[in-house]
């Protein structure tokens, strides 16, 4: 008899399992995959190179609370991610910064001049309602077309005007020369990898882990008081309110007989190829190796549900499931799929810590 059955051993499920176990609850955590860690799972491939099975995962957060919580389970390696975009035959810093603008337009502007240069190009809107407007309002048409429109169509099979403003607003526009992808206070990678961190989280006498186990198949057999569900919420409710749309990816890994494949960790291809970006893992992990492994991300309609798709219609569709949740006191939803939110890892951890506090203060 368990106090809690937790479905999904990714960040959401593992944080909740660990917190509940620490509070004295007996927890069973199940995952249908053959490993823990969810989409953050990493492993050494056949060449001995540490890779991320579900695409590159870079940890960054402004939350001291999240950073300190995870620090109980891992040491860290300082790592600042850098990305170049391949546009018109040049490799240019992404997010767009002063260097991008100087090289793209063939000018030589200082930071103040970049600001007024952009001010002349910006479109103005009374209210920003979608991802196209969010970028046009910052940089105008040329940069929008070359850096955002094609990439977004490829990634989502939707144009920026069809997506919530929050999607493209993830990418800042800078007038200085800062070429880091993120500017968070904490930009770190787990020193021994994500999977090792998850192993330490779940290594608790009150936690039992069951892999290759689909919740649907065991729900009648296992006895538990409360359920935490971090899989897709529509699947939990047998799609009674219709399927929620997700975007998937195919990952093509390649190992090359060179120690370095490309000049930075990630190169984005907004306007060419069927993949969106190429990432070289050794930059992320700091591993030294004579060979190197890269991954190309090919967006697809079918496959594992990796991304909720942030549109106004989909937010409404999710609201219809929220109405279902209210009927069950002993079932709690968490994580990117359980709450249908385009969340980064740190946001999922913060959300799970909040849910834990709510559960304990009832
Ligand atoms: P998941 O990690 O998806 O875990 C859910 C788990 O539930 C899965 O393991 C699944 O197998 C299991 N499950 C589902 N249904 C069932 C069932 N019926 N029975 C049993 N088990 C079930 N975030 C960042 O902060 N930085 C990044 O650089 C970054 N890069 C990303 C790159 C890609 C390509 C993707 C797809 C995501 C990226 N993210 C990144 C986001 C990050 O992956 C998520 O925020 C985080 O992994 C979500 O954790 P979760 O526990 O909610 O979900
Ligand atoms: N984006 C873009 N061009 C880029 C990078 C990002 O148009 O070179 C847009 C695109 O819509 C993408 C979103 O910004 O889906 C968020 O990018 P991010 O790198 O945060 O995506 P993730 O790492 O979550 O896939």
From TrEMBL:
Secretion signal, residue range per the UniProt entry: none
Family (UniProt): Belongs to the UDP-galactopyranose/dTDP-fucopyranose mutase family.
- Organism of derivation: Alicyclobacillus ferrooxydans
Cofactor(s) the record lists: FAD
Entry GO terms, CC: cytosol
Q: Which GO terms describe its molecular function?
A: flavin adenine dinucleotide binding; UDP-galactopyranose mutase activity
Key word Glycosyltransferase present in the record?
no
Q: What is this protein called?
A: UDP-galactopyranose mutase
Which UniProt keywords are listed? FAD, Flavoprotein, Isomerase
**One Pfam family hit:** GLF
InterPro entries cross-referenced by the UniProt entry: UDP-GALP_mutase (IPR004379), UDP-GalPyranose_mutase_C (IPR015899)
In the UniProt record, does the keyword Transferase occur?
A: no
